[in-house]
């Protein structure tokens, strides 16, 4: 057994300044402490998986990244610049981050193609023909060009989530945020979404993924962060977290999920 | 008792003009009261306390007053206060728009609240402004969802336009009553009026049902 975990493992692009830095981030909901001083760095091109029990703060941290939640303490830095407070500046930051939600949140009154084209048209002011060409290429990429004209109600969960990924990619984001992207899916459609995500990871996209899919985290993540009660209890490369967790509670959590290395 | 139905045919021109004005008044009122309702709903849902209370005050005021009183009030009382007399037709329009906007505001507010928060968040996460998210994502969905309610408001409004006859706007009810007064053909004119209202109202309700089936959003 390799116990040499005192040596800091090499991280992807660790020689460059991190894309995202969380410094002592605190988030409260009334008296409930959702995030209790979380500090974390995300490097360019890194796939980071946030794991841990429900309610441990993973999704909250993700939502603080693009200011869907406001933080009560600490800082979030994007390329070294703190997340602004002003709405117009926040919008600029959000344009650089794609987000994929657990419940897809496709717009039900728009076709798959229009869902994907909407961001470029509305936010970037792109011409409709150009935006639709981009949207079509992205639907092709997630394997759904044949469903371009379908409305969300006529797509399966897995297909909806793939359209949602294409929609986020249409803004050409620097970072993709995935908030439990497969938790609402039927088991048989989980794989198609994970494989799209894996392809994205291979292309070098910087990704933060809140997930309960331990197989995906083990296989695809460059860095795994374990949350409990609003704090990070352990972080490291997947080999460490899944095979040699240093913290008892990580072992407990993985054991609960039936993960045995 | 003898009936003389020819009185309807004799006055067909006036009756048709009255019916046209009834339809016109309904359409114009809705054209103004839908944006009015959306504006009031957005004020109510904004974070600005002043806008919230202004909207709440407006809605509760006009929703709880009889429409006929609002019509009288705009026609007789308002000119005393502002030294400015509107024509009966414009008065009718103003009163109807005030009343229907208040109802539409509540309808739109309920519709907007029924759209789950994730839709707004998905729009904001793309970088849309709050206004864009509202007008491109939330309101179009809310609008489809509340279409049946707007349809019944429409049908109510269509019939309620008859109330503006009290200030001598020559829509269908006023015209029919005038003919009745001149000819003493009470039963014939009231029957003609009922038939005309029903014949015009029923297809409108059906049309809106059809629109709802065609453009309603499945989820």
Molecular structure report:
The complex is a heterodimer of chains A (261) and B (219). Chain A is of the alpha/beta class. Helix content of chain A is 36%, strand content 23%. Chain A has nine helices and ten strands. Chain A has helices at 58-65, 87-95, 112-122, 128-141, 157-169, 187-202, 214-220, 238-243, 248-256, and strands at 20-29, 32-42, 47-51, 73-78, 81-82, 97-100, 175-179, 206-210, 223-228, 231-236. A six-stranded mixed β-sheet of chain A has the order 6-7-8-3-9-10, with helices on both faces. The longest helix of chain A has 16 residues, at 187-202. Chain A is globular. Chain A starts with 19 loop residues before the first strand and ends in a 5-residue tail after the last helix. By secondary structure, chain B is mainly α. Helix content of chain B is 82%, strand content 0%. Chain B has helices at 6-10, 12-45, 49-63, 67-82, 88-114, 117-125, 130-160, 172-183, 186-215. The chains are: A alpha/beta (261), B mainly alpha (219). Chain A binds chain B through residues 66, 68, 87-88, 91-92, 94-95, 97-99, 101, 103, 105-109, 118-119, 122-123, 151-153, 167-168, 171, and chain B through 118-119, 121-130, 132, 136-137, 140-141, 144, 217-219.
Write the layout of secondary structure elements.
The complex is a heterodimer of chains A (261) and B (219).
Chain A: E1 20-29, E2 32-42, E3 47-51, H1 58-65, E4 73-78, E5 81-82, H2 87-95, E6 97-100, H3 112-122, H4 128-141, H5 157-169, E7 175-179, H6 187-202, E8 206-210, H7 214-220, E9 223-228, E10 231-236, H8 238-243, H9 248-256
Helix pairs in contact in A: 3-4, 3-5, 4-5, 5-6
Chain B: H1 6-10, H2 12-45, H3 49-63, H4 67-82, H5 88-114, H6 117-125, H7 130-160, H8 172-183, H9 186-215
């Amino acid at each position: 057994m390799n116990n040499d975990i005192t040596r800091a493992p090499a991280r992807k692009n660790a020689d460059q300044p991190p894309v995202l830095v969380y410094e002592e981030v605190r988030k409260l909901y009334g008296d409930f402490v959702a995030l209790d001083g979380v500090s974390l760095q995300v490097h360019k091109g890194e796939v980071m998986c946030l794991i841990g029990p429900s309610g441990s703060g993973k999704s909250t941290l993700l939502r603080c990244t693009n200011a869907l939640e406001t933080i009560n303490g600490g800082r979030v830095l994007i390329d070294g610049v703190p997340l602004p407070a002003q709405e117009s500046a926040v919008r600029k930051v959000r344009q650089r981050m794609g987000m994929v939600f657990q419940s897809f949140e496709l717009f039900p009154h728009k076709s798959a193609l229009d869902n994907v084209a909407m961001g470029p048209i509305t936010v970037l002011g792109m011409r409709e023909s150009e935006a639709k060409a981009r949207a079509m290429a992205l639907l092709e990429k997630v394997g759904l060009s044949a469903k371009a004209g379908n409305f969300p109600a006529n797509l399966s969960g897995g297909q909806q989530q793939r359209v949602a990924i294409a929609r986020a990619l249409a803004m050409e984001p620097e970072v993709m945020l995935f908030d439990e992207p497969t938790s609402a899916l039927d088991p048989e459609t989980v794989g198609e979404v994970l494989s799209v995500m894996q392809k994205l990871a291979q292309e070098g996209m910087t990704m933060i993924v809140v997930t309960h899919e331990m197989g995906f985290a083990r296989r695809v993540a460059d860095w795994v962060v374990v949350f409990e009660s609003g704090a990070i209890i352990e972080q490291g490369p997947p080999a460490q977290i899944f095979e040699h967790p240093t913290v008892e509670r990580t072992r407990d959590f993985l054991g609960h999920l039936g993960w045995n290395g | 008792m003898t009936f003389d139905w020819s009185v309807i045919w004799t006055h067909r021109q006036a009756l048709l003009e009255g019916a046209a004005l009834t339809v016109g008044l309904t359409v114009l009122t809705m054209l103004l009261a839908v944006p009015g309702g959306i504006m009031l709903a957005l004020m109510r849902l904004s974070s600005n306390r002043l806008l919230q209370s202004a909207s709440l005050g407006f809605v509760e005021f006009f929703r709880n007053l009889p429409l006929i009183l609002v019509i009288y009030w705009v026609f007789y009382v308002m000119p005393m206060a502002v030294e400015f007399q509107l024509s009966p037709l414009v008065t009718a329009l103003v009163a109807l728009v005030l009343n229907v906007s208040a109802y539409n505001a509540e309808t739109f507010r309920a519709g907007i609240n029924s759209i789950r928060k994730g839709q707004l968040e998905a729009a904001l996460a793309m970088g849309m402004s709050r206004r864009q998210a509202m007008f491109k994502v939330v309101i179009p969905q809310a609008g489809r969802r509340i279409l049946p309610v707007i349809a019944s408001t429409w049908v109510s409004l269509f019939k309620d336009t008859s109330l503006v006859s009290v200030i001598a706007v020559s829509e269908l009810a006023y015209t029919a009553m005038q003919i009745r007064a001149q000819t003493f053909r009470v039963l014939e004119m009231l029957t003609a009026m009922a038939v005309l209202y029903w014949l015009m109202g029923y297809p409108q309700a059906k049309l809106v049902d059809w629109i709802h089936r065609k453009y309603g959003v499945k989820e």
